[in-house]
Design goal:
alpha/beta; Isopropylmalate Dehydrogenase; 2 domains; 10-stranded mixed sheet; globular; binds adenosine-5'-triphosphate
Length: 362
């Protein structure tokens, strides 16, 4: 029996629509080869350009599409020159995280091809870890409501027991899944600043409490500043890292740098009932409209969506298709004749996506 899934599609701003279009083609290609599942795409408008046109950045009907879909595929949103009256940028992707309580920001850091990794690996070590960024509170808690006077500005960090327990539970389960798959040793590292802030000592104590439920998974701790150093010096030493929202925001770009750049960095924001899949990068207005953006981060994010839906609904074909998608991207990168500009080549968006599609046809 074919299981149908509705996917809310937010093409967004800047390079967003340019990388979303080939990604949908790739998904269509995959679903055309199976009767186990089918995908129905529902386009939803949101973002800076939409705000400019209508005065609304995330209209109610788009929220409704997102709410009633099985998964949300989102490209990139926001444009630096389009801002709310308070000076902040339009960021419906952050509003979606808050609205659907998408507490687990999953940022896999996988070096797909060593020629794009700026780190020297003395013994050819594998870099394959996952950064889990809490995505609904932390320093983003007061987003849009920080207090500013002419002499002082104040933003508040919030860490709650409820969200932290769910976040750590998710992280330990992911480590167990990776260990079972033979992908890693099964270690979760709590990244914080517990030596300075009471809020992070609280965060760490909940990490410790949760760890007791997972005796087969090892635990570790790192202060965020040390982690930035270690991610450069020995990134192969990590398995699952879990951290606060702002720390995760910064470290995930460092992770993208290890992989070769933002064009190769996918992500997912996962909650108990909804999930958004989007590349780590923004709308890249500096290259928008030229058709030269790297579509791989978006395509790999769509792969994460298939994997998530497959696990959630017990559909092995979706998990296999996600694997095929990752393999196809890895092969294009390894083969090295189709290379986008962000990675030092001359290929455009369509050529890069076509190379992936061609491999999926085989
Ligand atoms: P945001 O704050 O919205 O995350 P940002 O400030 O991190 O955005 P990006 O829009 O991600 O900025 O762009 C950062 C740089 O990376 C830009 O020079 C942009 O051109 C480049 N870049 C981002 N994504 C891609 C991509 N898919 N392909 C090629 N270059 C990209």
């Amino acid at each position: 029996m074919t299981q149908d899934f509705t996917i809310a599609v937010f093409p967004g701003d800047g390079i967003g629509p340019e990388i979303m279009a080939p990604t949908l083609k790739v998904l269509e290609k995959l679903q055309s080869g199976t009767t186990d599942y089918s995908l129905t795409f529902r386009e939803a408008h949101a973002g800076a350009a939409h705000y400019q046109k209508t005065g609304e950045s995330l209209p109610e009907e788009s929220m409704e599409i997102a709410k009633t879909s099985d998964a949300i595929l989102l490209s990139a949103m926001g444009l630096p020159e389009v801002r709310y009256p308070d000076g902040t940028e339009i960021a419906p992707q952050i509003e979606l995280r808050m609205a659907f309580d998408l507490y687990a920001g999953v940022r896999p850091v996988t070096v797909r091809d060593s020629k794009y990794c700026p780190i020297i690996r003395p013994n050819g070590e594998t870099i394959d870890f996952v950064l889990i960024r809490e995505s609904t509170e932390g320093l983003f808690h007061s987003m849009g409501s920080g207090e500013v006077t002419c002499n002082e500005a104040r933003e508040t960090l919030q860490i709650t027991r409820k969200t932290s327990e769910k976040l750590f539970d998710f992280s330990f389960k992911l480590a167990a899944q990776r260990k079972k798959a033979g992908q890693s040793t099964g270690t979760v590292t709590c990244v914080d600043k517990a030596n300075v802030f009471r809020a992070f000592a609280f965060f760490r104590s909940i990490f410790d409490e949760t760890s007791e439920k997972f005796p087969d998974i090892d635990t570790n701790y790192a202060y965020v500043d040390a982690m930035a150093l270690w991610m450069v010096q020995r990134p192969w030493a990590f398995d699952v890292l879990v951290t606060e929202n702002m720390f995760g925001d910064i470290l995930s770009d460092l992770g993208a740098g290890l992989m070769g750049g933002l064009g190769l960095a996918p992500s997912a924001d996962i909650g108990d009932t909804h999930a958004v899949f989007q590349p780590c990068h923004g709308s890249a207005p500096d290259i928008a409209g030229q058709g030269i953006a790297n579509p791989f981060a978006m395509i790999l994010s769509a792969g994460m969506m298939l994997e998530w839906l497959g696990h959630l609904n017990g559909i092995q074909q979706m998990i296999d298709d996600a694997g095929a998608l990752k393999d196809a991207v890895n092969s294009v990168l390894a083969e090295g004749s189709i290379v986008t500009r962000d990675l030092g080549g001359t290929a455009n968006t369509d050529e890069a996506a076509a190379a992936v599609l061609k491999l999926l046809e085989k």
